[in-house]
């Protein structure tokens, strides 16, 4: 992949927390590393195995609340989609980006659970 495909994330975490618990800086970090070294195995492991499903880009509901917080003016939901398209396709387990995950993203019980977890962490 080309260097111009890098996402200009500096890892400042000002976009966090995302109320859907999407791990924005980590997703961009994994994606950028993959763009730089093309190491499919490491990228697959970091995103599809090591990162909990609820933190992956598929849970983004494109509320756009994170966009104004980013000093790098990254179109975060759009870039999450780009990163997810590249990273989730590395996995043999295609179900990670399938309808079930999308359904989970809109599950009110799951949203309440995530909000509770965020409150506990602050
Ligand atoms: S647009 Fe996506 S990543 Fe940004 S705050 Fe909303 S759900 Fe989270
Ligand atoms: S605010 Fe922008 S630059 Fe900072 S971690 Fe989030 S996406 Fe990256």
* Regions with little confidence, pLDDT below 50 for 5+ residues: 93-106
Number of helices: 5
The number of distinct structural domains comes to 1
Mean pLDDT figure: 85
Distance between the termini: 38 Å
Main pleated sheet: none
What ligand molecules are bound, each kind once?
iron/sulfur cluster
Instruction: Estimate percent helicity.
Output: 40-55%
Strand percent estimate: under 5%
Broad structural category: mainly alpha
- Compute the gyration radius: what is it? 14 Å
Number of strand elements: 0
H/E series, N to C? HHHHH
General description of the model:
With 122 residues, the chain is an all-alpha fold. The protein is 48% helix and 0% strand. It has helices at 24-37, 40-50, 76-88, 99-105, 108-120. α1 runs antiparallel to α2 and α1 packs across α3. It is globular and about 35 Å long. Mean pLDDT is 85; it is low at 93-106. Bound molecules: iron/sulfur cluster (2 copies). The site of one iron/sulfur cluster has 15 residues, from α1. One iron/sulfur cluster binds at residues 18, 20, 22, 24, 60-66, 76-77, 80.
Keywords:
binds iron/sulfur cluster; 0% strand; mainly alpha; 122 residues
Please give a quick description of this structure.
The chain is mostly helical and 122 residues long. The chain has five helices and no strands.
């Amino acid at each position: 992949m080309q260097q111009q495909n890098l996402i200009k994330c500096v890892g400042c975490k000002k976009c966090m927390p995302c109320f859907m618990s999407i791990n924005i800086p980590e997703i961009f970090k994994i994606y950028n590393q993959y763009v730089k070294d093309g190491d499919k195995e490491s990228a697959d492991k970091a995103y599809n195995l090591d990162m909990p499903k609820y933190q992956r880009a598929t849970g983004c509901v494109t509320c756009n609340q994170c966009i104004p917080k980013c000093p790098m003016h990254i179109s975060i939901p759009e870039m999450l989609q780009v990163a997810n398209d590249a990273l989730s396709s590395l996995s043999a387990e295609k179900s990670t980006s399938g309808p079930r995950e999308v359904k989970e993203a809109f599950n009110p019980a799951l949203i309440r659970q995530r909000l509770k977890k965020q409150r506990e962490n602050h």
